[in-house]
Amino acid sequence: MFSPLEQFYVLPLPLWFSSLTIKNFAIFFLSNFSVMLLFVVAFFGLFIFFSSRNSGPFTYFFYLSNVLMSFLVTIINENITKKGFYFFPYLFFLFFFLVTANLFGMVPYSFALTSHFAVTLFLSFLTFFSAVVIGFQQHGLKFFGLFLPNGAPFVLAPFLILVELISFVARLFSLAIRLFANIMSGHTLLKILAGFAWILGAELFSLVFLVPFVVVLVITGLEIVIAFLQAYVFTVLSSIYINEALVLH
Question: What's the chain look like in SS3?
C-alpha cells in the first residue's frame, strides 16, 4: 500500500464468482466492502443464536449478551421514557453492529465499514427517519411544536423555527460525520505511523524505530477504545433523538 487512503478503496474480489451481470447490469457483486458487511451481519446472527443457549461453551455468549443488554437498558433508562423500551431491539442491533464493524476494521487486511460515509449516513438516516415517523405517529401535527421552544416570543418565532429546523436536519449529517470522521482519521493516522516505524526499522536497524513502534501500539489501543466509544455515542444520541420525538419539549 502506497497511500494511507488506499485501505478505504472498495475493490472487487479477484474471484470468478465475484460478479454477475445481465445486459451490463450488475445484479451480484462481491467486494471487500460487501464481504465485510455480510461477515458482520452473520457474526451478529451467530452471536444471538449462541447467546440464547445457556449451556456448555455457549455460557460465555449468554453472559456477554446479558452484559450488553444491561448496558443498553441503562442507556434507555437514562435517555428515553418507558415507551423507549419498544426501541430496544433497534438500539441493541445498532450498538452491536457498530462495535463489531469498528473492531473488525482494526484487523490487518480487513475493511473498516464505518470509515465510509455512505454506511454511517444510512444508519443516521434510520434514526432520523424513525424519529420523524414516531413524532407524527404520537403527536400528529403537534410534532411541529418541536421547532418552537416553549415560552418563545411571538416576534422571534419565525427565526427560532428556522434555527430549530436547521438544527434538527443537521442531526442527520452530524451523527454520520462524527462516526465516519473518527474512524477514518484514526485508521489513516495508524497507517502513517506504522509506515514511518517500518521505514525507520528498515533504514536504521537500531532501537530508534522502537519509539514510533510504541506510539503505534498506543494509537492502536486508543483506536480500540474509540471503537467502543463511538458506538456508545451513536447509540446514546440516537436514543436522545427518539426520546425528543416521543415527548417533544
Answer: CCCHHHHHCCCECCCCCCEEEECCEEEEECEHHHHHHHHHHHHHHHHHHHHCCCCHHHHHHHHHHHHHHHHHHHHHHHHCCHHHHHHHHHHHHHHHHHHHHHHHCCCCCCCCHHHCHHHHHHHHHHHHHHHHHHHHHHHHHHHHHHHCCCCCCCCCHHHHHHHHHHHHHHHHHHHHHHHHHHHHHHHHHHHHHHHHHHHHHHHHCCHHHHHHHHHHHHHHHHHHHHHHHHHHHHHHHHHHHHHHHHHCC
Q: Position of cell 528498515? A: 202
CA atoms within 13 A on the CB side of 164: 18
Integer-rounded Cα radius of gyration of the chain: 22
Q: Which domain holds residue 120?
A: 4-247
Q: How many domains does one find in the chain?
A: 1
Q: Which residues in the chain show pLDDT less than 50?
A: none
> Per residue in 189-204, pLDDT tens?
888 888 777 777 666 6
102-123 pLDDT, tens digit each: 999 888 888 888 988 999 999 9
Q: How far apart are CA 53 and CA 205, in angstroms?
A: 52
Q: What is the pLDDT of residue 16?
A: 52
CB atoms within 10 A of CB 14: 6
Q: What is the pLDDT of residue 123?
A: 92
> Which residues lie below 8 Å from residue 228, measured CB to CB, with a gap of 6+?
99, 102
